[in-house]
Amino acid sequence: MDAAEYRALHERQMENNNGTTALNVFMHVAPPVFSVFHTVQLLAVTGVSHIPLRFLLEYLLIVLPFVLLVTVLHPLALNITVTLSVLSAISAIHQMRHRLHLTPFVQVPGRSPQFLTCVRALVNLVTAVCILAVDFHCFPRELAKTETFGYGLMDIGVGLYVFSNGIVYRVRPADEKRLTTARIRNVLTGATPLLMLGFARFFVTNEIDYQRHVSEYGVHWNFFITLAFVKVIGTLVMDLVRDPERVKFVAITLLCCHEMMLHLGVSRYVLSVDTQRDGFFSANREGIVSLPGYLALFLASVYIGWIVRPSEEIVLAKKFLRRALKLIIVSGVCWKMLYVCEDMFGISRRLANMGYCFWILAIGGTVTALCMLFELFVYFVRFEEPKSPDQIIKSDDFSIPYVPLILQSINANGLFFFLIANVLTGLVNMLFQTFLLGTAGGLVIIAYYMFMVCVTVAFLHVNNVKLKIW
């Protein structure tokens, strides 16, 4: 098939998708969390400390199963999730049953929460697999990005990135000055790499005539530009608000105003196929109009991060568990609101409407709560005696396989990981007509691509290299 004909085929495959169900999407997101749990248990039992061997085991037990889950094992997603969750519960109960008398003394380190590392790395991992897998026929079309309204696995990528940035945001102390010229300059400087990546992506894809689906963000807009604007505006808003208790009301107010504007005609303007793209705003209307929704999502995520992130150096198990339960309740409310919004407004990534924001908060909150329970379990079963903050955890000790090496590596160079994943995705699509390849060929390419991306960041992490220049 010639290049022009294949490009038209590729773009047709990405259009007019109505998605699947919210439950089905979550059934593809949850298994990696349980895979991490069982991988850590296996590494702890076997005592594997040899880094190459540990990397290989983690790749085979965490990364490769997810590649299979979103391709050939897609019809079994519900069965796999239920099985993994039951096995995890049985394993946890079996290991905890003789240790209940130690509960009051169990301590969890609060200085560097490991569950946040797991959440952020899993978001990167899931996104990296999907951005290439979606270009193959073995990736089910119902999980691809939806055209207007609906649930798709590919729809949650940008939302979960905003969520993962929000939950690690550190609120500035009240005694610091609010907004100064120097502060604004620093915020803009921090967002510069994202803007540069956004502009570079546009110019490169335009220059090589790479296939694009303009209804995702617009003609010139893309994922990186959305993240840059959300980072800048969200940081400045937080500098003004300061109090995390107040920021939840700002997020709710902004989200309600955004939904109201959409219903007053903005959504019809954005989604109409008759609206011409003859000016900058109209050409990029999806990216621009969705910004208030993503900003509200960021602010809500900051509040969730404030709920769950310990402010003390050491947290007792009871207090840590209380925070996890509070997050479970918040996530449950978001799941309920999701179905209310589905009936009233619909769920639209293109608009980042109220339903979409509650959907992302529900998924992100549930995954974070699972990771918190996992962290509590680890310190519960490893409990020996009360320790000092410096003794309780050594993050650079690879002989303690709590957070898998691959996830540590991804989190240490998250932006670089996502950048090379995008570059390799582009190269694969330039070298192969991916939609014409069979299932076996597609799986080999996706698995090799993920191996190369993961081994690159693992090499950097083991050698203490952090590619962050701002």
TrEMBL record:
InterPro entries: PIGW/GWT1. Its EC number is 2.3.-.-. A acetyltransferase, which acetylates the inositol ring of phosphatidylinositol during biosynthesis of GPI-anchor. It is found in: Endoplasmic reticulum membrane; Membrane. Belongs to the PIGW family. Pathway: Glycolipid biosynthesis; glycosylphosphatidylinositol-anchor biosynthesis. One of its GO terms (biological process) is GPI anchor biosynthetic process. It comes from the Eukaryota. GO terms for cellular component: endoplasmic reticulum membrane. PANTHER family: PHOSPHATIDYLINOSITOL-GLYCAN BIOSYNTHESIS CLASS W PROTEIN (PTHR20661). It is a multi-pass membrane protein. Its main location: endoplasmic reticulum. The chain crosses the membrane at residues 25-44, 51-70, 115-137, 149-171, 183-204, 219-237, 249-271, 291-308, 320-338, 358-381, 435-460. This is Phosphatidylinositol-glycan biosynthesis class W protein. GO terms for molecular function: glucosaminyl-phosphatidylinositol O-acyltransferase activity. Keywords: Acyltransferase, Endoplasmic reticulum, GPI-anchor biosynthesis, Membrane, Transferase, Transmembrane, Transmembrane helix.
